[in-house]
Amino acid sequence: MLKEAVSYSLAEGESVRIVQVTDPHLFADPDAELLGVNTRNSLAAVLDTIRAVDYPAHLLLATGDLSQDYSAESYREFVAAVGSLNMPCHYLPGNHDDPWIMHLHMQGEHIHAQQRILAGHWQILMLDSTVRGKPGGNMAESQFELIDQAIAARPDCHILLAMHHNPILMNCAWLDQHCMDNGSEFLRRIAEYPQVKGLLWGHVHQSIDTVYDGPNGPLQLMATPSTCIQFKPLSPYFALDSLQPGYRLLELKADGSICTNVYRVPGNHFSPDNTSSGY
After folding, report:
1. Nearest CA-CA partner of 33 in 69, 58, 64, 2
2. What are the pLDDT digits (tens) for 123-161?
3. By 3-state DSSP, what share of the chain in percent is helix, strand and coil, each rounded to 5?
4. Of 49, 100, 176, 198, which sees the most CB atoms within 10 A?
């Protein structure tokens, strides 16, 4: 049975405008740091940057690892923080989240856990790629069924798939141990659908924009920086990047094309500590 959807009414031909934030790794303790970065402060700086850009977005996607310590306080803090954007927030879990605690405390007028979003000419599906107790991911058969059912219900809509784990390798040896373990199968199967236009994820704490050449044309593949620490790309061992916290803006056009850019907090206010431990 197809799960309940959240629907947004747009003008005919209007693009769906989205802000994505990911991997804030919040703590109950407001002074807690992750590898030298206060994650509450870095999330606040990202949200300030989003407000300054004044992008007229319809909704916010939060793609997992909202908490670092599984605490109720961390989830309530996230809800309070994103409330300042005054837009609907749709979220999914990451490997650092506790789904039950998350569900209990991610509550609010504009907070949505539904996996299916209808907006204009698009469906956005919030997929769960987590495996309880493991840092890596897997796309379960139930999530493929959700995609099948959503397409059957609205074959006329383009689709954006959002998830936490990366379905492709990042060529970052230590990090690629924790990817989606059936990512190749996932890409092969979803590429069979002409409705699927793009995949969006977090987890990797770095930016990537590339394509997957499928039988129905190229799929856009997009990874987005964390709102806190950044992982150094192409590193065989754990290493942090000096790039600042970031987020992504997307415009899903009525013709099925996607325009997107990654933005970062200006300046150099957040300097991670490569000598720290605790991720």
Report:
1. 69
2. 999 999 999 989 999 999 999 999 999 999 999 999 999
3. 20, 30, 45
4. 198
